[in-house]
Amino acid sequence: MAEHAAEHESADKSLMEKITEKIHGRDSSSSDSDDDKPSPVDAVKSKISRLFGREKPVHHVLGGGKPADVFLWRNKKISAGVLGGATALWILFELLEYHLITLVCHVLILSLAVLFLWSNASTFINKSPLEIPVVTVPEKCVLEVASALRFEINRALAVLRDIASGRDLKKFLGVIAGLWVFSIVGNWCNFLTLFYIVFVLLHTVPVIYEKYEDKIDSFSEKATIEIKKQYAVFDEKVLRKVLNQIPRGLKEKKKD
């Protein structure tokens, strides 16, 4: 009887072990399938069309290097220092009406005077003189900068040539509107103030956009749809009529 009871208990244990293994197997398979399925948040994010049709994160769009880290405030001390330095320069040149050549000359005078006095005073105070490093501009760096600048200038000239050829009316109107707005802004402030405004925007807009990108992208999608509707109405009622009238006027002039 004891042996029969022991065999019965062992059979029950093996049966329970099989049941638990099946349950754990189902749980693991269901968890794996749940992991493979995208979450509802990711599904909603994938459906939202990103601003300017971007597919990469904001950090990659800004270059993905140290400048992107500065613009996105990855290191708050460095970003605050860069923005504070730019603000100090803008105050010096714009508010205090300090000139660039004067500032460079004063900085060089102060630096050379300190180094000269320290080099001569080191012999009297029994200290080793300063080792001034040899600073040279590498040729490779200059060539890379010149090549990048040349590439950007050639690309801008190619874009301007393509716009002036009259192939894309939408792009032509967009560039004309952008240049017109830029000329208005140029009347309000000088180049230094405009450069400082752009610099401040680079340190604020990307951070805000990265923080609220889903809300901004959904709003921009709605705004883009509305703008396309208005442009379609403008194209049908105004632009097509104007373009149709131009050949008629040329034909009438030829006949006369």
Structure write-up:
- The protein has helices at residues 2-36, 40-47, 58-61, 66-71, 76-95, 100-121, 139-164, 169-188, 191-211, 213-255.
- It has 256 residues and is mostly helical.
- Helix 5 runs antiparallel to helix 9.
- The longest helix is centred in the last third of the chain and has 43 residues, at 213-255.
- It comes from Melia azedarach.
- This is Reticulon-like protein.
Main attributes?
256 residues; mainly alpha; 10 helices; elongated
Q: What's this entry about, in short?
A:
With 256 residues, this protein is mainly α. Helix content is 80%, strand content 0%.
Q: What kind of sheet is the major sheet?
A: none
Overall mean confidence score, pLDDT: 76
Number of helices: 10
As a percent range, the share of strand residues is under 5%
Principal-axes shape call: elongated
- Got a strand count? 0
Poorly predicted runs of 5 or more residues: 1-9, 26-46
What is the share of helical residues? Answer: over 70%
SSE series: HHHHHHHHHH
**Pairing-aware structural class of the strands and helices?**
mainly alpha
Separation of the first and last Cα atoms? 126 Å
Report Rg. 34 Å
Layout of SSEs?
Layout: H1 2-36, H2 40-47, H3 58-61, H4 66-71, H5 76-95, H6 100-121, H7 139-164, H8 169-188, H9 191-211, H10 213-255
Protein name: Reticulon-like protein
